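Example (one chain per record):
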Amino acid sequence: MFRLFTTIAVIILVGLRVQAQDIPAPASDSTAVPAAVADTVARTQWYENGLIGKVYRYFKNSNKQRKKNFDISFIGGPHYSSEEGFGIGLAASGIYSAGGLQDTITPLSNITLKADATTGQMFKIGIEGYHIFVGDRYRLNYDVSFYSFKDKMWGIGYLENKADSSQNWYRRLQSEAKVDIVFQVSPNLFVGPKAEFAYINAHSFEKPWQLEGQSNRTFNTGVGITFLYDTRDIPTAATKGWNIRLDLIANPRFLANKYDFTKVELNASAYQQVWKGGVLAENLHSRHTWGNTPWGLMSTFGGSHTMRGYWEGRYRDKMATSVTVELRQHVWRRNGIAVWVGAGTVYPRFSALRLSHILPNAGIGYRWEFKKGVNVRLDVGFGRGEKSFNFSLNEAF
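Predicted structure:
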């Protein structure tokens, strides 16, 4: 999760650009130009041709029409948070067509790379995206990440999670990979196999009893099937359509898993254009596990996708459900805003679901069109007694 690093950079670059535009142009007779004006013009030319000018033009042209099939752009810079300290983050977004630049039928594929490192000994690196084969007959979806950082845990279960006194610091090392390849069985409907891998190594718990006797180290491999129904016009920034994904995953003992459990995860989103530049997006995310689910792979919410505003992993149990309604409004040129409201909770089984345990969520965000169909988003989310800032590429759902 990146912080506010590009906000400062964009403000500085835009301010310098406006300032440069206000400088008077030199007279046609160079011999009549006063020395002060000539010096100002020279400094303006340095700006235009120097590093700052190149950076400005890079971001200015990043959303232009593709001139080559694989179009990749980079964004990054410094950031700071009270918990992670100072850091440097970098993100790259690439779009391409499996059929080449002249293929206007196959939807565009996308790849996103992220890396971040801080003085608080946090390190993250990851790659995610989807490859749509020619004619949209097959789709390959992937998400691979590695990170090491100082994390927080509040135990397992809603009653334990809501108490601030349950907070528990620990060090966490995690690697995970998710990949599926789905085949089109009818228009907009895809089915195919999926595999998941996760390795979690946690140590230095302040309250180790919160693991409820489970090992601090988890190594799990899961296999299953994915169902996908997708009618979105633009997968990374949809304005209309549906996207419904259902994953059925088993983590059996014969795959060398210490913990044997099954998982059913539903992620359903709908999009409607309500007026000019306005898109209403709704999301339902529900993740259910049965069996001996390890603490590190239990259902949670928070972070940059679901229930933004909550610390990712604070609320943890075998099952979690959340709903979000978000209004995305284009404002001016490449700028937009988003506001959302939502609710969610965690529970060990369906019979334990309680209305009094439902948590509220709301927030507001800024959107900047980094590339066509790829937005940079800066979100400020609020939960019950919590808030968080999130900076990322692409929409939350």
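Caption: Residues 118 and 367 are 25 Å apart (CA to CA).
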